[in-house]
Amino acid sequence: MTNRTARIAFAAALVLGALPLWVSRVLPMVDLPQHLYLISVLHRLEDPTTLYPALFAARHELTPYLGYYYLVSALNWLFPLEVANRVFLTAYVVGLPLGMAFLLRSLGRPSWPALLTLPLAYGDSFGWGFINYLAALPLTLLCCGLFVRALTDVPHRIRQAMGLAACLVAVLLFHVQAFGFLAFGLPWLLFTTPVPEDASARGFVARLRPRVAALAGVVPGVTLFLAWVVLRFGNPPDIQPGAPWKAWGPTFSPQNLAWKGFEQNRAEFFQVLANTFHDGSDRWALYAVGLVAAVGWGLGLLRPGTLREGPVARWRLLGLGVLALALYFLLPFDIRGYVYYLNTRYAHLAAALLVASMPATRVGWRRPLCLAAAACALLVAFVMGRGFRDFAEEAREWDVLADVTGNRPKVMGLVFDAGSSVVRFPVFLHGAAVLARERGGVPNFTFATTPHSPLRYRDAVPPTFPSEWRPQQMDYATPEIAEWMPPDADVRRLMEQVAALAGSPLALSAPQRQEQVRQKVLDAARAYFTPEVRQRYARRLWRMAAFFEATGRPPQADMARAEARRLFHGVEEPYSRFAETLFTKVVVLAAAGAQAQSATGAPTAGEPPAPATSERRSPGGLILP
To answer: Which residue has the higher pLDDT, 588 or 267?
Structure first.
């Protein structure tokens, strides 16, 4: 395969991989509205036509998020904000395979497997909008490659070490988790990478001397990291047990760490690599990449090419992948008050390193493998582009709301349904930030409350509910509402259906029977809550809200009003928790009564003793003749 053909295929694949970012007007990323809002504030901090100067001030501290916010703010001088952000995301998407290609070439390997990382640029971290971490991944791969070259490229060691120093600082300024991976990855490369002088070196000092440049290249980044640690962890933690975004105890205490078990991590590993769309279409590209990688591994083992790495050095890339995989399985999910969603983010890095670590095959096989890898990018462009455009149509509601929003608004984000019919993530969660940014106002919640933000509130943080609003957590067991019951006729009808399930000849498992009972409850609630009944209960709940407020229960008042609005305006999905609970407690009360009667051995009133039976049943529970 000629260099020209390889470069054309590589460039075409990069264009296709980034194309979904430009075919959709809105990108489905949960935290993106918050990020764009902070960048808008940072860019217009002195703009008197907005609320920004009165509410926010720059946080003049070293934080690992400075890279993304300040770089896109700088691009905002050249492009509109959303275009500037797309330019940045494009650099990330094409940067992931380019960074992998640079690392592969630094290790003396063919670069075509780097194309297999393109689908991994999307997925769980992209859907959540962890842009700072994502942007650090190409730089992480670049750091590994520069470190290897600072060891092996004898004529240009100083230049490679200077590039390493700048790149490592950049990694820290984007996200500390990527820097944490390098804390393990660079020592691994140091001990497994031979240098030309090793053949004639005698003694420790002689072996150390050619490695000094590479070691010196990490000093600025490590120094900056230690300074950040002193600043960040030197302050006493704000310990508020149970509060979101706050520490629940000392930093590494058991109550401050949230873990996911090994089985859960194992089950989620492949899911988080491609979990964007409800229809699962984004997994097509992942399957295609897996197929090409499997063929590449098979050919590399059965038809190996010329080995340019020694017996130890050939394990360097695979070892980096194993290190990332170990971080995925061994780290906690949250360190509350400091780092969230910690271990899961390493899944994409581990997958990218592992899929590219295949042994080199013969030169003749590299052309078809490279073309097959480039074809995977075509699948990425089609599937992700189609899904992003479908979401953009769904998100047009934001435009309608923005048109009727006044200037300098204060927006309360009471989002009834943050979910989407296209993507799996709650992408409408931070919709209030979209409206506030469009009109120079402020939403009730911003990331300026977090210590890694480049901004802070000038005065006290505006009062709001903790983190995101969750109307589904309304406690309908308040003494006043707990007595509300459906009409007797509807109660009898529901209990007859539940009794029929209990006497079903099918041998159902407990979860299956529970799901069927819940479905009967939902069916009963939907049948009863006609538009007229919805409005009746909406008025009742609205009056109850006033009562709760008068009796010193503002959270219950807010939730009652929210549910009243849902019922009155006919919001269907997610279905009313109040309506479901109204019928659920009928089943719960009946089950409690049956349990009490069975404890005393008394039959239910009017129930005859159970007759003896000689029925024969199949293993599945069907009655046999």
So the answer is: 267
| HEC-encoded secondary structure of 273-285 | HCCCECCCCCHHH
Token representation of residue 197 = 């002088």
Distance CA 318, CA 356 (A): 8
- What single string gives the DSSP state of each residue in 212-223? HHHHHHHHHHHH
With a cut of 60, say whether residue 374 has pLDDT above it.
Answer: yes
Report the alpha-carbon angle 572-438-416, nearest 5: 15
Q: How far apart are CA 316 and CA 326, in angstroms?
A: 15
Overall size of the chain counted in residues = 625
Yes or no: say if 301 and 169 are a contact pair by the CB < 8 Å rule. no
Please say whether the beta carbons of 520 and 491 come within 8 A: no
Structure tokens at 41: 């504030």
Whether the CB-CB separation of 312 and 60 falls below 8 Å is answered with no
For residues 35 and 446, the answer to whether their CB atoms sit within 8 Å is: no
pLDDT higher than threshold 60 for residue 450: yes
| Mean pLDDT value of segment 62-73 | 90
Q: How far apart are CA 138 and CA 97, in angstroms?
A: 8
Grade residue 6 by pLDDT with cuts at 50, 70 and 90. Answer: confident
Phi and psi (nearest 5°) for 345? Answer: -65, -25
Using left for φ > 0, alpha for ψ between -120 and 50, and beta otherwise, residue 36 falls in alpha
Helix (H/G/I), strand (E/B), else coil: 303:
coil
Rounded to whole angstroms, the Cα distance separating 149 from 162 reads: 11
The amino acid at residue 506 is: L
Q: In this structure, are residues 551 and 494 in contact, taking their beta carbons and an 8 Å threshold?
A: no
pLDDT band at residue 607 using 50, 70 and 90 as cut-offs: very low
CA distance 516 to 500: 11
Distance in angstroms (rounded) separating the CA atoms of residues 365 and 295:
10
pTM of the full structure: 0.77
Q: How confident is the model at residue 542 (pLDDT cuts 50, 70, 90)?
A: confident
CB 274 within 8 A of CB 286: yes
User: What confidence tier does 474 reach under pLDDT thresholds 50, 70, 90?
Assistant: low
Nearest to 97 by CA among 273, 361, 352: 352
Q: Is residue 171 very low, low, confident or very high in pLDDT (cuts 50, 70, 90)?
A: very high
- Whether residue 247 contacts residue 237, with contact meaning beta carbons closer than 8 Å, is answered with yes
Q: What is the DSSP letter of 473?
A: G
d(CA 167, CA 180): 14
Q: Is the pLDDT of residue 331 over 70?
A: yes
Q: Provide φ and ψ at 69, rounded to 5°.
A: -65, -45
Residue-level pLDDT at 624:
37
